[in-house]
Design brief:
Number of helices of chain A: 13
Number of domains of chain A: 2
CATH superfamily of the largest domain in chain A: Acetylglutamate kinase-like
Largest sheet of chain A: 8 strands, mixed
Oligomer: homodimer
Radius of gyration of chain A: 24 Å
CATH class of the largest domain in chain A: Alpha Beta
């Protein structure tokens, strides 16, 4: 007997047939004797409809701009999960499974007061656990809680993943299964490299790098939360036949386990290759090399909501002038250049150079902490394909390389192969 | 300065433009210095969509019949008012009016545990009143409260009227305005008698008879509640221009006031003519005239969910046998006859006679309590038009007459005229 939290996203509960399919997945675990809590998103499309109404209402009411009260936004948008949680409870009951829906305010899932982007502060899991003992499945509305003002608070887009992990931590679950429209986490994007393999396990830290680098499987915050509370999190497909062989396997179901690195016995040096296209590079030449220069550059860019990614600054030769390079999404390049133009007097650079249409390719692996030569292998492999490296940044478990966008797929395949990721 | 509760139904909040129109009505009262609570239904069509999902879900999940948990029904269906209350709060804020939405569990509106048909047990109006003092408008999700199990409970269809009256009682409002798609209560159906007049005032008791007789303006329970708590309730149109002259008149706005009879100084003898078509009459001849016979007839009919309306039993000539006549909706006549056939041994009647296609016409007026000859006037007027009366029942403030359905409109117009209702 285990305690399992299962999470299903919007496409998995898009209509009544799919909700029935979700109920079959749940029934399988219940029939196996497990204690189960299910976390659901709103039916696909509903959240967008509700958000659109909230955004349009001020204009329809004659306001000049679309400012709205985030507390009302939360009240309105959270209704989507209220509906899907109730429908799943009915589906389970119809299949003979004792179940009830729980809204955030009923458990309660307490959040802070940052409406529309709230963070979970505390979850009282005692009533859920008491009902597990009675054989009752908890169907929890994801994405929401209740703030200190006793009003509904939502966690922001993708927040249902976070709800699921937080509930798993609160009820001390053995596993948190995130059912999604992919069947696990791959060594790289299978559309780029058909030889990409689904990983059996990946460490939390690696998953954080994979997720924030564009492997859009899990919300980053949910992975952070899982890492802090050591929640064993499983990514698997909601479109698999719920009753196919092995689906109910407690230790090795199909999918990818995200877990503490200590649980990964045979640690690979490199576990995955991530990439992001449509990057632009901006270089400032011959900056004054003094305290405050970085702040003068990146503060105004952040104020303009420009998401800066790689930052490379080299040590200046004579201690007076240096070069700074960073990347932004290509679509923000012109805006970034305009911001920099306005900061020219403060920053005191000589020349700005920029180039769009670049790609960032990243090699990720906890094992590289203790292995030398990982970076050199990448550089050599790319050189053999005549791929020019424009910039490099590294962290303990990641090497990111900026290249011409036209070579992105070739670079991904080359690196995937050179680290042996295409071999089982 | 007055304290006003305003209620808007589903057609009044059907889309963002109409919600804006509702907000204009509210702003008018706020600008006049009044304290305002608004009660809203779900956007038209939403409740039906949600109810349909609830009813379909068990079948989709493979259940033989459509049984569902009423607590989940309530959770799902109440989401409709959650959305409309939030949107109206945003519309008001966009127009510079301080407002916030309130769900039933937040106020709280406490109900009993009869999910899907709950009754309000208690409303704590103190927080709403405190915020009135701060100039804040309360936008309350109608149709819902929270049960002793801390779960959402709905009041059943039309329950938003009841929510509004109950909140008006809880905050001791001066008036409860029910905005609807008609502009008041008429002396009879204007589609039958174009000379029908909108009443300025009608007593609670009269409105109860009008409403339950088919003048479908207000939910019967809300009128009962208004009568008990002496809530002055105003029926008016939500489609009038919110800023037309007289709309904000505190004492005489356009519409019909439903109030205590003591407030109606010049009491008319007859205030309205109601009618119901498609009635069927069923007569049992030569029943045993002994205790328990009525129960043996009407108990099984109630168990079969057949709504019996008029019941006429005459005193038997010799104390041993009597006749009993009652009406049911025409569509239920065959079912009723089958039930009676099954009860024949118990009831011990001789013959059953039935006739469909009848109409019931009712004359209503509190003044008839103290006026003789009201019934005689009706009988004489109908006789002059050669309309045959099949059955008669009377209460203190109502005379109901069963006639051939073909004469329904003629009878309504004749009675409307003979009591002078077409004269201002």
């Amino acid at each position: 007997m285990a305690r399992i939290v299962m999470k299903f996203g919007g496409t998995s509960v898009a209509d009544l047939d799919r909700i029935h399919n979700v109920a079959r997945h749940v029934k399988r675990e219940v029939d196996a004797g497990h204690e189960v809590a299910v976390v659901v998103s709103a039916m696909a499309g509903k959240t967008n409809e509700l958000v659109n109404w909230v955004q349009q209402m001020p204009k329809v009411a004659g306001a000049n701009a679309s400012f709205y009260d985030a507390r009302e936004y939360d009240t309105i948008v959270a209704s989507g999960e209220q509906v899907s949680s109730g429908l799943l409870a009915i589906a389970l009951q119809s299949m003979g499974v004792d179940a009830r829906s729980w809204q955030g305010w009923q458990i309660p899932i307490k959040t802070d007061n940052a409406h529309a982007a709230a963070r979970i502060v505390d979850i009282d899991g005692s009533e859920l656990i008491r009902r597990f003992g009675m054989g009752q499945v908890a169907v929890v509305a994801g994405f929401q809680g209740v703030g200190p003002d006793n009003r509904v608070a939502t966690l922001g887009r993708g927040g249902s993943d976070t709800s699921a992990v937080a509930i798993a931590a609160a009820v001390n679950a053995d596993r948190c299964d995130i059912y999604t429209d992919v069947d696990g986490v791959y060594t790289t994007d299978p559309r780029v490299e058909p030889k990409a393999r689904r990983m059996k396990k990946i460490a939390f830290e690696e998953m954080l790098e994979m997720a924030s680098l564009g492997a859009k499987v899990l919300q980053v915050r949910s992975v952070e939360l899982a890492m802090v509370h050591k929640v064993r999190t499983f990514v698997r497909s909601s479109f698999d036949d719920p009753d196919a062989p092995g689906m109910g396997d407690l230790l090795n179901p199909p999918g990818t386990l995200i877990c503490d690195e200590e649980e990964i016995v045979e640690q690979e040096v490199v576990t995955g290759i991530a990439y992001a296209k449509d990057e632009a590079q901006i270089s400032l030449r011959r900056l004054a090399d003094r305290p405050g220069v970085s702040a003068a550059i990146f503060g105004p860019l952040a104020d303009a909501h420009i998401n800066v990614d790689m930052i490379v600054q080299n040590i200046s030769e004579d201690g007076s002038r240096t070069d700074m390079t960073f990347t932004v999404p290509s679509g923000d390049a012109d805006k970034a250049l305009a911001v920099l133009e306005g900061q020219k007097q403060v920053v005191g650079y000589d020349v700005v150079q920029s180039e769009s249409g670049l790609a960032k390719v990243s090699v990720i692996g906890i094992g590289m902490r203790s292995h030398a030569g990982v970076a050199a292998t990448a550089f050599k492999a790319l050189a053999e394909k005549s791929i020019n490296i424009k910039a490099i940044t590294t962290s303990e478990i990641k090497i990111s390389i900026l290249i011409d966008g036209a070579y992105a797929e070739l670079a991904v395949r080359t690196l995937h192969s050179v680290y042996g990721l295409d071999k089982t």
